[in-house]
Every structure is written in C-alpha cells, then in structure tokens.
Amino acid sequence: MELNARIPDHPIEKMWTNHQFDMKLVNPANKRKYRVIVVGTGLAGGAAAATMGELGYNVECFTFHDSPRRAHSIAAQGGINAAKNYQGDGDSIHRLFYDTVKGGDFRSREANVHRLAELSLNIIDQAVAQGVPFAREYGGLLANRSFGGAQVSRTFYARGQTGQQLLLGVYQALERQVHAGTVNMHVRKEMMDVIVVDGQARGIVTRDLVSGKIEAHMADAVVLGTGGYSNVFFLSTNAKGCNVTATWRAHRRGAGFANPCFTQIHPTCIPQSGEYQSKLTLMSESLRNDGRIWVPKRAGDDRPAHQIPEGERDYYLERLYPSFGNLAPRDIASRRAKEMVDAGHGVGSMKNGVYLDFADAIGRLGKSAVEERYGNLFQMYEKITGEDPYQVPMRIYPAPHYTMGGLWVDYDLMTTVPGLFAIGEANFSDHGANRLGASALMQGLADGYFIVPTTIGNYLADGPKGGVDENHAAARDAVREVTESQNRLLETRGSRSVDSFHQELGRLMWNHCGMARTESGLEEALRKLPELREQFWRDVRVPGSADTLNQSLEKAGRVADFLEFAEVMCHDALTRDESCGAHFREEHVTEEGEARRDDENFAHGAVWEFKGVGEEPVRHQEPLTFEHVPLSQRSYK
Amino acid sequence: MNLTLHVWRQSGPRDEGRFETFKPEGITESMSFLDMLDLVNEEITVDGGEPIAFEHDCREGICGSCGMVVNGVAHGPEKLVTACQLHMRSFSDGDEIWVEPWRASAFPVMRDLVVDRSSFDRIIQAGGYVSIRTGSAQDANAIPVPKPNADRAFDAAACIGCGACVAACPNASAMLFTSAKAAHLSYLPQGQTERLERAVGMVAIHDEEGFGNCTNHGACQEVCPKGISVDYISRLNRDLLKANLTGVEPGD
Ligand code: SF4
Ligand code: FES
User: What are the pLDDT digits (tens) for A49-79?
Assistant: First the structure.
C-alpha cells in the first residue's frame, strides 16, 4: 500500500491557494458528462453533493434515512469554531491551526489542519448567507463563546442546536439542487459495497431498504461522507443508525484505514439507567463552564448529595488541575471520572456517575441566569432522568461520542483507492488523537463545501472514465456477494437477536478498548472477537425476508461489519504502544497520571491494510512532521 | 410495570392492518418508550415472530425520525416531547397503551409504524431555501440581523420535520411545517428576495401532495414537540395574499 499524502510543495500559508491554482480544472460545459456518487447526507456529504451539483456535475446522492435531513450531524449541540476574530481577542488562522494540532496531541497532518483553519472563515459566511440563525448580540452582529477550554471566543452557535441549524442549511441547499435536477437523491438506500474496476472506484452497491433490491450504481468517482464508528461500543451518543459499513467495505476493497483506535469519549453524558438502555445522551460540555464536578470523598458513600458536607466532597478536577479545573480537556475529564467511579466513588443508584453541581452557580448568578444559559439542557436532563437539576446535582459519565480515526486520505481527501474520496468524520484527517470541541462541524463543512468539490476536479480532469456499466463483471460480482451475505444472515435462523450480539460486542470493546487500554486487555479482546464473530454467523436470528422493509436485516449487516472492524481497532490500540490524546494505554503514564506520548516511535499515522477476515491486517505508517507547531507535552495543570 | 400494549401491525402499503396485543415483562419506569419497544421486539424475535417496524435514530428529540400516535395523541401524552423522549414513568402500572402510525393520505404507511414522509422533502424543494452559491457569500457580519428577528427565525427553524402536526390535524394539513420554514427565512434579511415566490411555491406543492387545508383547529400546535406556533400560518397566509395581489408566481 503506497501512502503518498501529496502535500503540495508550497509554504503552508499559501499551500491551499496555490494548490487550487495548480490543480487541473474541468471545463464547465464538460462537467455534466461526469457522474459522481455521494454517500451520506450529513454536513460533509450533503454539502459536497449540493456544491458539486451546483458546479454542474451529475450527482447521485444516497442515504439510508427517509430524508437527508435526518443525518446524525443534526444532533450536534455546542457550536462551530471559526477564526473570524470578531471578538478581537487575538484569534487568528494560525492560532486555530496551532490549537487544533496541539489539541490533537500531535497526531494530525499540519498541512490539512492549516487549510481547515483557513476555510473556517468561509464556512461561517456561507452558513449565514443561507439563513442559518446563529446567536446574535443586541447590535445584530454574530455572538461567540469560548468552548471546551479554548482561550479565545471563536465558537459560533445556534442555542444548543448548532448541528441542526447547519444541517438544515445543507439540506436546503441540497433540496435546491434536487429541484434543479443536478442531484438525484436516493433515500432509504444503504450502501453495501464499493465497486472497484482496474484499481479505481467506479461505483457502489446499494440495498433498497423498502423493496430489498440490491443493485449497482456506476460513476466516475465516489465520495463517502458516512460518519464515524462510535456504535462499535453499542452504547454511545451516536444515533442508532450510525455504522461503519460504508468505510469498512471501502477498506475491504483496498482503502487504508487510519488510526482506528482514536475514539473520543465525551465527558458530559447522562449515565446509563438500566440494562435495557439503547443509547446514551450527551449534554453540551458548555455545562462545565459553570457546573462543578465532584464525588464523595469516601468510597461507597450512600448519602444523597445534599447531606454530604462540603468537607467530604472531592472536587477532583479543581484539585488536580488548578488552572483549568472543571474545564480540563475532554480526554482528561473523562478519564478522571472513570477513575473515580472505578475506585467506588460513583454516585446514583447504579454508582456509575459523578456529580455536576450548579448550586454554586445558582447562588452566585441567580437561578434565572443559570436558566437562561442552560435551561434547555436542564429540561432535557429532567425529561430523561426525572430529576430536577436545580434541586439535585446532575449526574454525568463519559460516553463514546466521536471517532477521529477513519479512512486514510491524502491532501486532496482521496483514499488509497483512486477515485474514492472520504470526507467528514469518515476520514482521519484533521483531529489527530483528540478532537477539540466545536471542530467536528467545521471539518465536515470544510470538506463538503470547499475541499472535495475542488479536488475531485483534479482527479476527473483527464476525461470521463467511461467504459463500464452495471453489467461489468466487478459490479455483478459485488452485487452477488452482497446478496449472498444477506441471504446467509436470513438463513442462519439461530437463537439470538442481532442486538444481543451488538451489546456483547459493545461491552467487550468498552472494557478492553474503551477509555483506558492495556496490552493484556487488548490481547484478550483479540482472542474473543473471532469467537464472537463465529458465534454470530452460527447463531444469529434475523427474522423476516430479504424483499421487504426489514430493520433486523439492516442491523444484522451493520453488526456483522462492526464485528470485523473491531479487530483492527484493537490491533491498532495494541500496536500504538504509547498514550496520546484520547488513546490511553495504562502502561504509558507520567508520574502525574497523564498520557505519555512517545514521539520517537509513534509520531505517525498508522494505516491498516486489509488482508482477509480473520487474517492479521498489515500496519503501514505515514510519518508526521511538525514544522510549525513545535512538539510539546500538553499541560493543563 | 405491567402493561397491555396494542400495536398497529401492517405488513405493507396494501395490507389492511390490525392491532396486535402484547403483554411485555420487565418494563421499568426509567425506560424510554422506544427502549420499551426494543424490549418487546427482542421478545418477538426470540419467539420467532417479526419485530415491530418503527423509525428512530437520534433518540433525543432532534432528528425527527420517530413518530407514532400513542393513546390517540401524536408523540404521546407529554407536551413538547417526541416519542423517543417519552419515558415509561409517564404511564401507570396496569395501563393499556395503543400505538399507531401517523395517519394521513400524504403519509402512506409502509410497514407497521413506518410512514412515507418524502412529501415534506418535496415541499422544501419547492422553495424552502435561500438561493446562494457555495463560496459566493460576503463576510458574515456584513449582514447584521436584529437579535429579536434572529431569535424569531430560530424559533421557527427549530422544526424537526417529524410530521406530528399532520397526524394531529383533522384535515391532515401540513401548514404548520410549511409555515415554519417560510417564517424562518422570512424573518431574516437573507430570505427577503425570494419571500413571496417561496410562499407560493411551497404552498402549491403542499396542496399537490394531498395535504388538507388549514381551518384553524390548532391541533398541530398542541402536539408539536418543538412548540412551533400557529402564528406562522397566519404570517404565511399574509404573504400568500400579497403574492396574489401582486401576481407573484412560484420560482423555478
Ligand atoms: S411543525 Fe412541529 S409537529 Fe410539525 S413537523 Fe415541525 S416539529 Fe413536527
Ligand atoms: S429518534 Fe430522533 S427525534 Fe425521536
């Protein structure tokens, strides 16, 4: 597998501008001769489809949802970063670039991150012009807040529904192109495989989720904006439908998968309340601006919060990180909460949370000010838990939330399969080992609106590929393979539901490849995963038939892919024998209990090559160099 | 909790459909309504039956996928929540619960509780956007928007496209949904240029898709999980009137 990041040979500040000039262009009149497939309609996929349609390409856009507006980007709460410096507080492109590289714990590619910081400006302009109702000040200008411990106010937001409003902007732009006839929208069609002809991506196989029809769609290039894989843990904050199938299938067809072990655990989620819970709910981490996190000093203390006197409470983040306190970065806040719960200090009936207490804030600011800032979040919390956070402290616990790993891409966002592009959370490019708050929306939109619609032209400029249609042997084979595996799932007629396997997989991954990882734990997971996969194919029960709307069958295919994917994730965590960002190996800690990076041996992206199910995958490396942000140890003391 | 559940089962658009009764075990108050349905489905699967099809994704009230009529009310008994945000503590031991799909001719049932809401996408296609090319926008702060207008635009933009308003309306009108999008854009300077064309275009498709007329029942507002106000419908009607008087046609 050849890893050439194709970083343009220009100074970093001018790299993207000059590269745009250097790239070949497709003549406007010729664009309609090209057909481009886009899979996924979230911020990345939806924006890419709309923009490429507008540019004149023939776009075929696919989603498994009933409407493009349902994509999981809709659920993002907090905000979107941009280096506008509207607050005049010293922000700049360079500072956003710097913070992102450092926040990612030096495991991302400088060139890509710099471009992201540059494009952050255009995103806000674009969204506002579309009518995205960002928060405003009384003078009518855009409001900002500081987010996730950033030292400047660069986060734009729309109450607690920033993702929703940005996605609706994307959705509306997309529907406008559907109306104009440049984008052909396929809803309720799930991508099941990539079709590769002569080493180039030339199409996809889909299953129609209503009729069950499995068919091939051909194109000159394929763009995947299919999101992340947090649902490998079963319980996560991701929507239930989020899955790894598209990226995993691409990987099986030759696309390198980079840093799969970089998974982010979000510190402020509502703890699990019972065994049958199907998903976890995130609450914006802006809550940490005013809430104080604590646990009882005495392990096993059963008293309700208000009966525990001040002196018997441990405000552990304030104690351990005097300068950042409750605003310590996500990975640190998450890990420390786990330590507290593991040591028996957990609160709530299941002893599985820590307190996030607003009593001081209410005393200091008054109830109405707290309500103004967090009212909707308090309401949401009460709806779910039945407890009133104005009276009793909230209980929170970390939960899987975002995945930094993904398909390896070069500077043009192309995977190792020519003609196959990956954008948004589906690629690995910008966040390194840890993503900063309010940066996911930024990256999805930068990739979708501005990068891939330009770079794809460079790939296509040599002329339409032509020559293959749905009857090509590669397409027919891929359709046959998908059909066979669907039939196999239905014919197994075992005794266990798909969900029960997914839950078991999730527990295994959470215990061994979750917030803290060890060599022995990962080895155990690698022993158990093949057994679980074998059991799944022997004993799964998928009711119903192939030619109807069959949600069990949909889930079964996704879980089958998660079961394969989980293995490479554990291999990656095992071979990355260091701690960095969200990847925490218990063997590698500093005296103070923080992650200890090993730049000498691990300043690289790890890129995996598929060798067959159950075969050991091959690890390749993309070396990373840091010329603009000097390597340093993160310190939040 | 002991409950008796009657769920609408329908194998496809042409099937007549019927209620099927379940007596699930192991329901607790802290479960969400959809966790409860998951549990029922688990039992059905293990017993060799076909699980109840229902739509859901985010399970936190934002994606608009879930939607079912619970005991005669769209999204169930609690105000300002979606079905996925409903918890079993809203019910009592011994309750009977009836669960049905949205019923409206513009939302045909596909299977069990799953309906086809693609008509909503087509209403948006008819003008629910600002026509702006990617990359051509001016600096964001060059368009100041008075805060009250920005807030109003946001209130309208909070619609999640769930369709409860249609399910609750005796005429199966989608005017709450349609007017919310029109209002979101008409409160902003960016939305003015196409304002009347948009109103005419979206309402024309609304009618063409088979949604009924609004006769001011207000049932939509009662069930809307996002508190979308019927005032937007009057606002849209005023724009329609203006468009009629000035002879504005739908955009292309
Ligand atoms: S107006 Fe309310 S009920 Fe109707 S689709 Fe929007 S959110 Fe749902
Ligand atoms: S599942 Fe998303 S709103 Fe209910």
Answer: 999 999 999 999 999 999 999 999 999 988 9
Testing the interface with B: which of A132, A166, A174, A379 to mutate, by most B Cβ within 10 A? A132
Q: Could you tell me if A420 and A449 are in contact, meaning their C-beta atoms sit under 8 angstroms apart?
A: no
CATH of B4-111, one of 3.10.20.30, 3.30.1330.30, 3.30.530.20, 3.40.50.1820: 3.10.20.30
Q: Who's near B24: CB < 8 A, 6+ residues apart?
A: B3, B5, B36, B39, B40, B43
Residue B59 forms contact with A (CB below 8 Å): yes
Strand partners, A203: A195, A218
Q: What domains are defined for chain A?
A: 15-24+32-264+402-460 (3.50.50.60), 266-399 (3.90.700.10), 476-596 (1.20.58.100)
Give the whole-number percent of chain B exceeding pLDDT 70: 100
Among chain A residues, the shortest Cα distance to B135 is held by: A126
Indicate the SS3 state at residue B171. Answer: coil
- Output the pLDDT for position A623: 97
What pLDDT is attached to residue B252?
Answer: 61
Adjacent-strand bridge partners of B56: none
Using CB atoms, pick whichever of A54, A133, A239 lies closest to residue B63. Answer: A239
Q: What is the pTM of this model?
A: 0.97
* Chain B residue with the nearest C-alpha to that of A48: B134
Cα angle for residues A559, A423, A107 (degrees, 5° grid): 90
d(CA A393, CA A307): 12
The rounded Å distance from CA B247 to ligand 2 centre is: 40
pLDDT(B19) > 70: yes
In angstroms, what CA-CA distances link A455 with A38, A124, A178, A419, B173? 14, 21, 23, 11, 44
Report chain A's mean pLDDT, rounded to a whole number: 95
Q: Where does CATH 3.10.20.30 sit in chain B?
A: 4-111
Domain boundaries for CATH 1.10.1060.10 within chain B: 118-246
For residues A364 and A232, give the distance between their C-alpha atoms in angstroms, rounded to a whole number: 42
Alpha-carbon gap, residue A15 to A369, rounded angstroms: 46
Q: Is the ipTM of this complex over 0.85?
A: yes
Which CATH superfamily does the domain covering B118-246 fall into? Alpha-helical ferredoxin (1.10.1060.10)
Question: CA-CA distance, B159 to B229, in Å (whole number)?
Answer: 10
The amino acid at residue B171 is: N
- Nearest neighbour of B64 by CB, restricted to A70, A122, A544: A70
Could you tell me if the CB of B175 is within 6 A of ligand 1? no
Structure confidence by residue, pLDDT tens digits, B121-150: 999 999 999 999 999 999 999 999 999 999
| pLDDT tens for each residue of A259-276 | 999 999 999 999 998 888
Enter the tokens of residue A464: 């339409």
Beta bridge partners of A36: A59, A221
The helix (run of H) or strand (run of E) holding residue A183 is strand A183-186
Burial class (CB in 10 A: 0-12, 13-18, 19+), B90: middle
Give residue for tokens 């040591």: A343
**Going edge to edge, which strands form the sheet with B73-74?**
B18-22, B4-9, B96-100, B69-70, B73-74
Q: What is the pLDDT of residues A218-236, one digit of tens each?
A: 999 999 999 999 999 999 9
Which parts of chain A have pLDDT scores under 50? Answer: none
